[in-house]
Design brief:
The protein is an alpha/beta fold. The protein has twelve helices and six strands. 55% of the residues lie in helices and 12% in strands.
Length: 356
């Protein structure tokens, strides 16, 4: 087995006891999650299986019409998660080719927000770091960011692979291809895999066709097309190596235990996120209801006050009319109603006009 892989996973005594007890009770998972962070690092980020990674990358680049990679070497690998806290990590492979091209591969199952901005930031950071040694700008090499996504980045679009470089919106003129962003939405491969299954009943698909091969890769990684890939594995050298890597990985009960911890952490994180979202929505709902209640109360109070004022005014005017009708002097009516003498005189004048 890959000793480098084991060296980065040192079990604490507590975790070791938990592993032994879990294995004794036969509670380890039976089914491999091929899209788990840990397995993907084992499969794609180990130098011993570099040709598997190169095949995947070249399949993507060929499909997009870009130059293939002849070789790649990892840079600043940070593969070690904090096992004691049960935290999993996404695959984030950073490598350099013989020609100097920088490649960053990321596989992400869920959209945690602002993915496009984060991808652009990461790619730009890689470009920036190329000049930290004080080299001139002509030393900048092409940086390729490839994201294999388990979620739809562009919802409503049937297309599932995208590439972006800096171009003019009107003419399509390329400003620079030093920054290349590629996204593959493996979550949209369901229809493509269904078509492949139908075709395989009549004839074997061309596994060297980049579109077919990328669909096979996506089907394998997500687990939705393992049945198709298994038929190809016996004839394809790269997928034979993939099958062997899977056998070596899943044959070790410690890896099964680590997958269990990783999946538990993901479930806990999802539950926490859903709880936070529900709490925020509930707070917003309560705030809206309180705002509506406050508004209704304020409106009712204002309406009642205004109505009472109008009612009192009407009552006073009516009383003034009645007092004048029985012949009370203006001064007396003003004193009794609280109206001014001028107001009472105007009321009396209106009474005279109406009676005249």
């Amino acid at each position: 087995m890959d000793m480098d892989f084991y060296e980065m996973h040192v079990f604490s005594p507590e975790l070791e006891r938990e592993f032994i007890e879990t294995e004794r009770k036969k509670l380890l998972p039976e089914k491999l999650n091929r899209y788990s962070d840990r397995y993907l690092k084992f499969l794609l980020a180990s130098p011993e299986r570099k040709n598997i990674l190169i095949n995947l990358l070249n399949t993507i680049l060929t499909l997009m019409g870009y130059e293939q990679l002849s070789d790649i070497a990892p840079i600043d690998r940070e593969l070690s998660p904090n096992i004691q806290k049960g935290k999993g990590i996404r695959l984030d492979y950073h490598g350099r080719t013989k020609s100097g091209r920088m490649v960053n591969l990321e596989l992400q199952k869920d959209n945690e927000g602002y993915f496009e901005k984060r991808a652009l930031y990461n790619a730009a950071t890689i470009i920036h770091r190329q000049l930290l040694s004080g080299d001139d700008y002509d030393k900048i090499c092409q940086t390729i960011f490839i994201g294999l996504l388990g979620f739809p980045l562009f919802k409503g679009e049937k297309k599932w692979h995208w590439d972006f470089i800096l171009t003019n919106c009107d003419s399509g003129r390329i400003l620079s291809d030093d920054l290349l962003l590629i996204f593959v939405e493996v979550g949209k491969l369901t229809e493509t895999l269904r078509e492949l299954r139908t075709r395989m009943k009549v004839e074997k698909p061309d596994k060297d066709d980049p579109a077919v091969r990328l669909a096979l890769w996506g089907g394998y990684l997500t687990g939705e097309g393992v049945d198709i890939v298994s038929e190809i594995m016996t004839e394809d050298k790269v997928f034979q190596e993939v099958a062997q890597a899977e056998h070596d990985y899943w044959g070790d009960s410690r890896n099964r235990f680590l997958q269990m911890i990783e999946e538990k952490h993901e479930r806990d994180a999802l539950s926490a996120r859903l709880y936070a979202e529900r709490t925020a929505m509930e707070k917003e709902r309560v705030a809206m209801e309180r705002g509506m209640e406050a508004g209704m109360e304020a409106g009712m109070e204002a309406g009642m006050e205004k109505g009472m004022e109008k009612g009192m005014e009407a009552g006073i005017l009516k009383a003034a009319h009645n007092f004048l009708k029985i012949g009370l002097p203006v001064e007396q009516v003003a004193e009794g109603t609280g109206l001014s003498i001028d107001e009472v005189r105007r009321i009396k004048e209106m009474e005279i006009k109406q009676s005249g």
